[in-house]
Amino acid sequence: MSTGWTVFIVVLTAFNILGCAWLLWWTAKRRPGDPKPEETSHYWDGDITEFNKPMPRWWINWFYLMIVFGIGYLAWYGGLGGIDGLSSWSSHDEHALAKAADDARLEETFAPYKGRPIDQIARDPAAIKLGQSIFSNNCATCHGSSAQGAIGFPNLGDDIWHWGGSPEEILTSILDGREGVMPEWGTVLTGMGGDSAVISVVAYVRSLSDPARSKDYLAVQGQRLYEGVCIACHGVDGKGNTALGSPDLTDDYWMYGDSTAQLTQSIAHGRHGVMPAWRDMLGETRSRLVGAYVWSLSHPGGETATATATPAAQETASQ
């Protein structure tokens, strides 16, 4: 705190303390010429009189003691701007001590899960409850309290993972975040196929998850455009690429909506999705607990990671 503010607070505090003491002294004494306590001229029902007596001496003395106590409190604990108290106590240090104690208790609680794979942690009901609590405090803002997501935020309760669904890939998504970018293709596609190019690609993309549409005129036209632009990320078969976060277009899940307007927006103007990195905020162990909770949502029976793990992860698990 600056010197100017410290001086202002000291002067203001001294003015208030001295003002209270002066007001108490001024109003507690009677002076020559003052009317007697019963001479207020306030009467009711003939025999009820309002008196104006001074406060009892014990009350006045107690008030003086409170003023002295306030001065002592300020001297001991501080409170006059940047001037430290005689005890050197500060709320900052008090908070640091309380935080250190709480962190130690949390560390003890989380210690059993340190370094363990999230699919193993997910078998522990107590760990799932901890992970759910951490999820509710940090992740529910985007993914919802039930982790079902919303437009632009993925559903974590299904088996669709744009960045991969192995335990290692899920943990990486939480710790280091993800950034998915769908470029704007409207101008490029229009240059290749005219004004109907974007809607033709929309028709073809729809046909990937609904083969009955594959013979539609627009879908046929859109396939050529798709193969000229989109296969670099989504692949020839539309299965996507988890290394890039590009979604599988053959399923029935559309993170940004499946209406014609929403798909047109995605293709013509692009999308930019960001999953924040939580390594610094949560730390690795708490991130593992969140990952275990998320894993349990799509593996309610406690299945192991063998079916969806990467070959490297399967080799590691078998060693």
Brief descriptors of the model:
mainly alpha, Cytochrome Bc1 Complex, Chain D, domain 2, two-stranded antiparallel sheet, two-stranded antiparallel ribbon, 4 strands, elongated, disordered C terminus, respiratory chain, iron, electron transport
Describe this protein's structure.
The chain is mainly alpha-helical and 319 residues long. The protein has 3 domains: 3-89, no CATH class; 107-177 and 276-310, Orthogonal Bundle (Cytochrome Bc1 Complex, Chain D, domain 2); 181-275, Cytochrome c-like domain (Cytochrome Bc1 Complex, Chain D, domain 2, Orthogonal Bundle). Helix content is 55%, strand content 4%. It contains 14 helices and 4 strands. The strands form 2 sheets. The chain has a two-stranded antiparallel sheet with strand order 1-2. A two-stranded antiparallel ribbon has the order 3-4. Helix 5 packs across helix 13 and helix 9 (197-209) crosses helix 12 (260-269).
| Biggest sheet record | 2 strands, antiparallel
CA distance, first residue to last residue: 59 Å
CATH superfamily of the largest domain: Cytochrome c-like domain
The CATH topology of the largest domain turns out to be Cytochrome Bc1 Complex, Chain D, domain 2
> What low-confidence regions span 5 or more consecutive residues with pLDDT below 50?
304-319
Element pattern in H and E? HEEHHHHHHEHHHHHEHH
Note the beta-strand portion.
Answer: under 5%
Overall CATH class of the largest domain = Mainly Alpha
Helical fraction: 40-55%
What's the total helix number?
14
Number of structural domains: 3
Shape: elongated
The count of strands amounts to 4
Structural class, by secondary structure, is mainly alpha
Question: What Rg is obtained from the alpha carbons, in whole angstroms?
Answer: 36 Å
Overall pLDDT score: 90
